[in-house]
C-alpha cells in the first residue's frame, strides 16, 4: 500500500487532486474511471477533514492506495470517532431532497464500483475497476 498523510485543512484537497492526476498518468487510467476516482476520493477526504476530524488542523487524514491490473483501492482514514454508517438517510427521498448535507457518501457509493466502511466508521475503502 502506498500512503499519504494530510493535515485536516481544506486546501490539502489540492494534494489529493494532484495524487490522482499522477496515478492516472502513471497507470494510464481511462478518463471515465479517472473522473469517478477523482470525485469519490476528493469527497471522501473532504468528509474526513470536515466531519471526521472537525477541521482540527492537528488531526491527520491517512490516504492509502493500492493498484493491481484490474482494480485500484483507496482507503481514507480520519482521526475522528466514526459514525453509524449502517443508518444513512437517502438524500433522494422527498424529506431529504432540499438538505445541503448528506449527499457525499451517496455520491461516493455511486461513483465507486464498491465501497466499504470499517467500524467505528472513520475508515472508508473505495474500489474502482480498471478493466
From TrEMBL:
Record-linked InterPro entries: Anti-sigma-factor_SerPK, HATPase_C_sf, HATPase_dom
Pfam families, A to Z: HATPase_c_2
This protein's record includes keyword Kinase: yes
GO molecular function: protein serine/threonine kinase activity
SUPFAM superfamilies given in the database record: ATPase domain of HSP90 chaperone/DNA topoisomerase II/histidine kinase
Domain Histidine kinase/HSP90-like ATPase: 10-127
UniProt keyword list: Kinase, Serine/threonine-protein kinase, Transferase
Protein's UniProt name: Serine/threonine-protein kinase RsbW
Organism: Alkalitalea saponilacus
Amino acid at each position: 500500500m502506498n500512503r499519504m498523510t494530510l493535515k485536516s485543512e481544506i486546501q490539502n484537497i489540492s494534494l489529493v487532486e494532484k495524487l490522482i492526476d499522477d496515478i492516472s498518468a502513471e497507470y494510464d487510467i481511462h478518463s471515465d474511471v479517472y473522473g469517478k476516482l477523482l470525485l469519490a476520493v476528493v469527497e471522501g477526504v473532504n468528509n474526513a477533514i470536515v466531519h471526521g476530524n472537525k477541521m482540527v488542523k492537528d488531526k491527520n487524514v491517512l490516504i492509502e492506495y493500492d493498484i493491481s491490473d484490474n482494480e485500484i483501492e483507496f482507503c481514507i482514514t480520519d482521526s475522528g470517532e466514526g459514525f453509524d454508517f449502517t443508518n444513512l438517510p437517502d438524500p433522494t427521498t422527498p424529506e431529504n431532497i432540499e438538505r445541503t448535507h448528506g449527499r457525499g457518501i451517496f455520491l461516493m457509493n455511486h461513483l465507486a464500483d464498491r465501497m466499504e466502511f470499517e467500524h467505528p466508521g472513520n475508515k472508508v475503502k473505495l474500489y474502482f475497476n480498471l478493466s
